[in-house]
Specification:
By secondary structure, this protein is an alpha/beta fold. It has a single domain, classed as Spore Coat Polysaccharide Biosynthesis Protein SpsA, Chain A (Alpha-Beta Complex). The chain has helices spanning 18-29, 49-55, 71-80, 100-110, 141-145, 160-165, 177-187, 213-227, 237-250, 252-263; strands at 8-13, 36-42, 62-65, 86-91, 95-96, 116-124, 130-134, 156-159, 192-203. Strands 1, 2, 3, 4, 5, 6, 7, 8 and 9 form a nine-stranded mixed β-sheet that branches. Helix 1 runs parallel beside helix 2.
C-alpha cells in the first residue's frame, strides 16, 4: 500500500509520570501502521520513568536523556531527531487509540494539500474511565484567541515542513505551546482539516498540570501575548460570546456530533 511509505515521527515528552508512561508507550508501539519513528524525551525523571523507557528501548527509535528548558524545548529536541514527513506528539500521561495513525495516514495520502489534520478525543481519569468526549474545531486564529477554537493536541498531526516553517514550539510558553504552534502555522499559511474520528485519550486528574488553577491563570497571560500576533487586544466577554455563537452556527457538525454521542450507548463512536 502506498501509504506505508509515509513516515510518521511521534515524540513523547516524559517527566515523572511513571504510573501512566507505560500505557502511553504501548499505545504507540502497538499501532497497526508499519512506518513509525518513535522518540522519547526525558529531562531527568526520578520516579522510575527512565526504567520503563529502557524496558522498551528495542521499540523506541530514539531516547533523549538530557536536561531541557521545559516541555516545548523537549519537544523541539525530539523533533530535531525526527526523520518522518508527518509529526505528532503525545504526553506521557495520555495515549493514542488503536489504528489512530493508520487512519490519519489514509487522509494525508488522499489530501496532499493539507498541512495539519485533527481528530477528536476522549477525556479519561487516572483509572482510564471516560469522563467526556472532546472535539476539534475548524481552526481560525480569531476564534482561537477568543477561546472558541480547540484542536485536540493528542489527535493532531502535521507535516514536517510546516512545523519548522512556523519556527517549531515557543520554548518560553510553558502552558499553551501547542495552541501557539497551531496559530503560528496558520499565520505561516498552513492548511488545516479535521476528521470525524476519535484518535486519542487525554488524561485529566487532580494533580495534572491541565487540572490546576495556576495553569488556567497562566493560559490567560499567554493568551494576551498571543493576541498581539494577530493584532488584536485581549478579547472581551462579549467578543468571546459572539465568536462562540458564530462557531456554533457555522460549524454545526460539532453540535450534531455531541447530540449523536449523547444518544449513543457506545463508549465512543468512530463513524
Amino acid at each position: 500500500m502506498a501509504m506505508a511509505f509515509m513516515k510518521f515521527s511521534i515524540v513523547t515528552i516524559s517527566f515523572n509520570q511513571a504510573r501512566f508512561l507505560e500505557q502511553a508507550i504501548l499505545s504507540i508501539i502497538s499501532q497497526d501502521y508499519p512506518n513509525i519513528q518513535y522518540i522519547v524525551v526525558d529531562p531527568g525523571s526520578t520516579d522510575g520513568s527512565r526504567d520503563i523507557i529502557e524496558k522498551y528501548h528495542n521499540h523506541i527509535d530514539k531516547i533523549i536523556f538530557e536536561p531541557d528548558n521545559g516541555p516545548a524545548d523537549g519537544l523541539n529536541k525530539g523533533f530535531r531527531a525526527a526523520t518522518g514527513q508527518i509529526y505528532g506528539f503525545l504526553n506521557s500521561d495520555d495515549f493514542l487509540l488503536s489504528s489512530a495513525i493508520s487512519t490519519v495516514a489514509k487522509v494525508f495520502e488522499k489530501r496532499l494539500d493539507i498541512d495539519v489534520l485533527s481528530g477528536h478525543g476522549l477525556i479519561v481519569d487516572e483509572d482510564n474511565k471516560i469522563k467526556k468526549k472532546i472535539y476539534s474545531h475548524r481552526f481560525s486564529p480569531v476564534a482561537y484567541v477568543n477561546g472558541a477554537c480547540v484542536l485536540v493536541q493528542q489527535s493532531t498531526f502535521f507535516k514536517e515542513n510546516i512545523f519548522w516553517g512556523a519556527g517549531g514550539f515557543n520554548c518560553n510558553n510553558r502552558v499553551s505551546w501547542d495552541g501557539e504552534l497551531w496559530l503560528d502555522i496558520a499565520l505561516n499559511g498552513g492548511k488545516f482539516t479535521r476528521i470525524n474520528r476519535f484518535l486519542s485519550a487525554f488524561r485529566l486528574y487532580s494533580d495534572s498540570i491541565s487540572g490546576s488553577g495556576n495553569y488556567l491563570n497562566e493560559i490567560m497571560k499567554q493568551n494576551e501575548r498571543i493576541c498581539e500576533k494577530i493584532g488584536v487586544k485581549r478579547p472581551s466577554i462579549f467578543s468571546k460570546r459572539v465568536t462562540h455563537l458564530i462557531n456554533r452556527i457555522t460549524d454545526p457538525s460539532i453540535t450534531s456530533r455531541r447530540i449523536y454521542d449523547a444518544l449513543s450507548r457506545n463508549k465512543y463512536v468512530n463513524k
